[in-house]
Here is the input.
Amino acid sequence: MNAQFALAAVAALSLSLLACGDDSTDPDAGVAGLDATVGLDGGGPVDSGGVTNLNSPTRILAFLEGKTLTMQGSNIPSHPNGFTENADFGAATQCYNRTTITVTGGNFSITSIAGTLVGAAPNVTCDRTMTGATIGPFSSNTVTINNVNAPRADCFDVQIDFTGFTQVGRAKFAPDASQLWMELYFAANSPSGHTCADGAVGPQTGAVTQTIQGNVLPFTGDAVQKYVIE
Here is the structure.
């Protein structure tokens, strides 16, 4: 990603990692009628086989309710939100030490701790172990989950609306439902190829594009944020 283009695109955006919730109406019957047995991680709806059933937006949120999601260390991608962590974008710099999300009432409260950029431009590097400023907590305005690939939610589309900007992308749960993985991009950069219909959640080698200053640029990098669910 060309750093000059990227800086112009994201400099006005908040230094934040965002996550997904759901204010949409789900045609599924919802939590009612689900087996009340405790799920894989000690809470949440399960199917009759005792495995967490995540086949709708409502069930995904019911599973996450009351939990804390944490991303740190090697679970932080090299390109959060589609931009390299090794660049100075001012307030929108994507260098992180840790991000924590708490889920209450279907809402997500997010607090990030920045990492620290070391070196001199243009050869700066993100040191994730050297903590910087604390950002947040803050909450999303609206979140939409669509196109859940049932029954284990191994891909679903996400849109997260915050004051001043929106994130879009796709997400999945780890096979044992211990982690939530979200591949997210800034909607302002008109990403394409970022939905479940386009492919699976994962590092990209050009299948996703972003439009920066009118230029459609292929994205090559890892934008998958991995959150441990507790």
